[in-house]
Amino acid sequence: MFSRNTGANLVKVTLTLSLTVPFVALVVIGALTAHGRQKRLLLVGLAYLPLYLIFGLWHEVRLLLAVVPFVLPAGLSFLQEMNRVDQPDPR
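Below the sequence we write its predicted structure tokens.
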């Protein structure tokens, strides 16, 4: 499977990773600031990740679409925390 993912599809894999790595980084950082329900939703993504890495073709973004509703709240919570830090105190 590794040779199928890195063989002739190397350009597709590189493009897909360049588009998804920033989002994954946002979700990982957001997991630190996420609340209880959001952290429980991230468990679905953690269960899905090994299956994607082992059995999925890495250039198929449609496999990742099933996880987006579960990991998006964690990424958005991080952006919300960043917005609060950037806002000045209304004193």
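The two ends are 59 Å apart (CA to CA).
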